[in-house]
Design a protein that fits this description.
The structure is a homohexamer.
Chain A lengths: L4 H10 L1 H7 L3 E6 L7 H16 L3 E6 L4 H8 L6 E2 L2 E2 L3 H25 L4 E5 L6 E5 L9 E7 L2 H8 L3 E5 L1 E3 L5 E4 L1 H11 L4 E6 L17 E3 L3 H7 L6 H13 L4 E6 L5 H7 L6 E4 L1
Parallel strand pairs in A: 1-2, 1-11, 2-8, 5-8, 7-10, 11-13, 12-14
Antiparallel strand pairs in A: 3-4, 6-7, 9-10, 13-14
Helix pairs in contact in A: 3-5, 4-5, 7-9
Chain lengths: 286, 286, 286, 286, 286, 286
């Protein structure tokens, strides 16, 4: 479709009320899933985040690892086993995780944002004591799979005050300097609480929470905390949605105004979420 | 035309390079002519300016008086006469000018910007010694028609640092406190130089400088200072275009990077000028 | 009387304790009445306010409209009628109010202050959303006579931090951009509360609250809030004093330390109030 | 003479143009002579300096030692001898100088200023490396009589930025930590240059530079640098005036706008100098 | 003992955990006793305090008068008498106190710190209203022996923010400007509370609180507030230790984290206290 | 050797003059070679750098890759070939370089510094456009081996202002987002010039520049730029020393005050260089 310059100007102007609403607000974006693999989707997420910065928001990106960790583990012939559905992370695996998350994925996102006109700075949870971690399973059955013990948001604040976009790899460090691999959704929620974010957006590969998983039209666009137990009981919240919803719940209880589960397979889904009332995905509210 | 949300998002993203280019820049907009009379054009100029602010520019508005001065003079039965095509401004006329410019037009623009989501603050050249004026004709043949003697941009800087949009009525004050009516184009150019603006946009009722005044396709989209004398000789720059071009010339010589004569009758012409390479009107360059 | 330079120096030095006491304090002055008409009184009020600024106070001026609104209404043959003693303000009247308050009176005060060495900046309640108004009479019987719904003191704070003197015309704007004419005393009280002023001074045309309205010696120099109902019952607080006293009461309840009703017909009455213990007029205290 | 409150207000207002002129300016006052001995004069100097601060100037006081050094030397039976009219300062004498200047006189001035409502802080040239000194006579014939080698105005700037009044005892320190006694006029001039003062006022016990020393009416109210040699040749500048004039000359050459030799025996002579055009004493100009 | 450069580096590095612990903390040091008389000890205290500053602490020094007051009283043949073991301080004595404390001792410490590379600034309690005093004995039996009524830490804060080291002579001033001599330990405790210090160190001439005064091995290294009454009853806290312990108690109750009574006769005892866990002297804790 | 606490304190104090000299200065440390492999040396470098920060310097670390790149290339069976002694870097190799430099080595150094009490933040040249790179060999014969085209030190300045320690991986990005591997010495020199560092320290595996490579006693402790060509001609500067010396030369010409080639195999060699006059290695001076 070919639009005249005027029609384009009209559309810019339509965004004004949304721009105004989020001006100066902090938005944590958990970036992962399909939007991290498909080159075109990737490019659009980068544009969306840079645009958010230029129209006055303070986006903070937390990313997962994508399929590349498995690929490198395989190439290096490092065997892994699973405990209750979670991968046991030994030191060799941990090194691969760090190289992929910190050295490859994080820097690719930083490059992508900067190529789109942003000023992004990569961080891991090790930088400036950003994420203090502890083993998720204290018995050591999961190795270096960690959970967030404490967030020190100092370096994030320093960066966003100067209008940089922080991009955070979900790695933590305990007090002895040992690295831990942490679920990126959990990191995003904890960071959102620690920086007092106004919004948390989880990019996923589903259209949101569906009453009937086979019917996109059954999407629950708004979910109250009080209704979560019932939906769990009914099996509506199930499988991979359980941890997503738990992250949102944790963020909402921690004071984050709005949390969203958004379909990253839809191009520009972040912008759509921010700049239209329509809403995409599922919003979890108090 | 109905656009999908996605198509709209694409258009927002297209604006990114322009947003980036002008981020943090000061843009002086001379607002006048048709764009100040037609309600719909008016609304769009307000949106354009507020949008400029939200995407990181620092717009500064200078406005003229429109037809309302004449209307009030007529209602009050104040007779005026003209000297060399300029209206002789006596004290009674001056009062009307001040009431219309400072009390009505300025505040209408401020209201309009604020209703569009901006934070505008009205100023006249009297505020904080912003514009020191002297009579344009020292013999007094024009009464209180003035010209700019000095700009003290302190109050403008104070306001834009806090992200307000200054809206300036083209009134000056001499050292004895006497008010003067100054041509708004001249004020815009002088303010642009004083605040070290990156861009000056004059909204006019013409499509730009035309080689052949009957042929819009003959528009000169870029005009070099060196070519001005020739165009004047040839009669291409003539009539009302002479003072417009002179203002641009003065701004360019004073260090303003880009100056534009833009057709205010085209909706969103400011945005088009800023956000497209196409360019509208005529740009005067060094 | 001719004073030696030494005698003058002594008098400057006498003011030291008062200067010290008010150093850095915010003082809202409601300027109106005779002090706004008589040229000599006017000049002195300007000097007083500028002097306050130079000795370290932060004066904020709120002004009324004086007789000029009526004069212009008459010249324009706009008929007005009264409802319960208040003028019904239709759109035509409102335009005149705006032109006089914002375009003439406000700028005259700004000019006067600047000519006395100050750096004043004119504001109306429309600027930067300073005063959000609503109709005083929700039934619309009074037209666009408004009352203060909310004060956003941001632009005042921005200006006084840079040592400017804000001069405020008592106009408000509702959320649709409609202008309202508000009683200046009410605006002064609301501004004083919003900026957390230390002092509110209402310039009036009476010597203060008199027990016996025919006997200036019966002036009540200090009035406690608790005594107001009794004085109203006794008819001591009556007529035009009722709204003045109500304004003071509102300011005191809002946290303004000291509120004063001062006789603007006495030259330099503001300075006298500030720089002498004697006190002039009536001070309303908690 | 009894003045009405109004007459007093008029006098305050008369000072406005002078207050405006010196607002934010730095004024170095060399305090010494009769004004340091007579209790009443003393009190007035304190008031003058505190008033200067409250009306926006930044006064910096440098003081001499007065007769108290001699008194204590005598009581302690420390013998002194003179070399070319200057007292040889050995270690025992130096200790007395330090105790009197730093422990007694400096703190008396600080107390006096604070009792008048100021916030004064005593300094010696030793504090924070303020004055680096070297022996005036490198052969050691004068002992620890020093001259200024370097001023580090950091601590003065720190204090006046917070609106304190620095009070400086004219003691310096060489790189080994040895204290030196320096002429207070020289310190005042050097400090004035180092802090880029706008004005230097030397309080003396003479009415200024007189053509005829017996005729006060012969006072030279303004002295150009170029005329100094001639006046020295003619014997107009002679005796104690030579070093005073040299200090002023040094300050003027160092960029201090105005330097004044003022009669400290006249009450409030500092205020008179600052707040009247009449001028007292002699002003040395480029 | 000759150490290799490497061995020295190792020792620097050993101090890291202590440096880290106290980084940015305020430490009030009461300087007095032997450490103020012995030249070598003196030099080391200066080094210790300057080093504290360079490794990021904010030391604040309060000093006593040492034996020099008595010497000068004797030389000047000023007779003194004692009331309950405290010297009656008349005006003549007070002057000597001020000259010694403010003019000599204070400036010697400032010189010493600056010669060691610091940027020290001498203060007395008179400067900027730092210490408001009242007579210790309201009946006047002790003359101008004072106690602390109020501390205004403004000037201390101003100085340490710019990385200066404040050095405070224990003199106060009442509201009439009368000077008072105050016990330096009491001043140190009051200053520590007022600036919210993290540590108070009292340099004394004892090894700390000893259970058996003849046995240094009986030192109580940590003393709880609750145990003080018992130790007083048992005579363990007795004589000169009573006021020292009272000062610590007062500081602890005022919120100072750690207070120490340290042996100033041990070289570098301040550094040892700060940079070793061993601890020297007695620490009083809540 | 066992030292008493006192002896240790003495050593701390000995460092004072050096601490003072470098207070507030920026020092770029190129970290590589043996000091990056040997665990004990590593720990000491971490301590040295953290200590530098705590005593007021602003260290900035640039690191190389060590042997780990080769190890991973080998494990992944990526074949590489060499061009003129430099490894051709194709995309697969580049990915390994990025994972090792950015994901492993950089984060190990960050962890090490933080475990020693520092607040380090890892950066690569991609972050915030820190290093713009171009191919070293424009013909592409070296693949993605790059050289520095431009340094944007903004993010470094932001971090050191908040007392963080930046740790920089020597990766650059061209305008299309392509990553380049750059020699770490070159990056260190370019960063030192860009941040206007006072000192550049290159940690190497040699004792400095030796006249006779077999005789450590022939070390040239100071090398003038003018002497470089001669030493190159004589073969004294040869092999791996050539690029090191070139880096120092480039930094010195760029305004870095002091540049040092230091033996990283000596424990605490950085501290020794900074805190002793003895000097270790070779200093290159203008």
């Amino acid at each position: 479709m070919v639009l005249s310059a005027l029609e384009k100007a009209e559309i810019l102007v339509e965004a004004l009320p949304y721009i105004k609403e989020f001006y100066g607000k902090k938005v944590v974006v958990k970036y992962g899933g399909a939007a991290m693999i498909d080159e075109e989707l990737k490019a659009r997420v980068m544009q969306d985040i840079v645009l958010m910065r230029y129209v006055g928001m303070n986006p903070i990106v937390v990313h997962g690892g994508g399929p590349e960790i498995n690929q490198l583990l395989k190439r290096l012939e490092i065997e892994t086993h699973f405990v209750n559905g979670m991968r046991y992370t030994d030191q060799a695996t941990m090194e691969v995780v760090e190289m992929i998350l910190g050295g490859k994925v994080n820097q690719q996102i930083v490059s992508g944002l900067n190529a789109s006109g942003g000023h992004a700075v990569g961080l891991s949870g090790k930088d400036a004591g950003l994420i203090t971690a502890r083993p998720m399973n204290p018995d050591g059955h999961l190795g270096f799979v960690g959970e967030v013990e404490k967030i020190d948001p100092g370096v994030i604040d320093t960066l966003i005050e100067q209008e940089y976009i922080p991009v955070i790899a979900p790695l933590g460090m305990d007090e002895k300097g040992q690295a831990y691999n942490i679920n990126a959704d959990l990191v995003a929620a904890a960071v959102a609480v620690a920086v007092k974010a106004d919004k948390l957006v989880l990019l996923t590969d589903v259209p949101g929470l569906l009453r009937d998983v086979h019917d996109e039209a059954s999407r629950i666009s708004q979910l109250k905390l009080d209704d979560i137990p019932r939906y769990v009981d009914e099996g509506v919240i199930a499988g991979g949605m359980i941890p997503k919803i738990r992250c949102c719940e944790q963020a909402v209880r921690g004071g984050v105004g709005r949390t969203h589960i958004v379909d990253g397979r839809v191009p520009h889904s972040i912008l759509l979420e921010v700049f239209t009332r329509a809403g995409v995905g599922t919003m979890v509210v108090p």
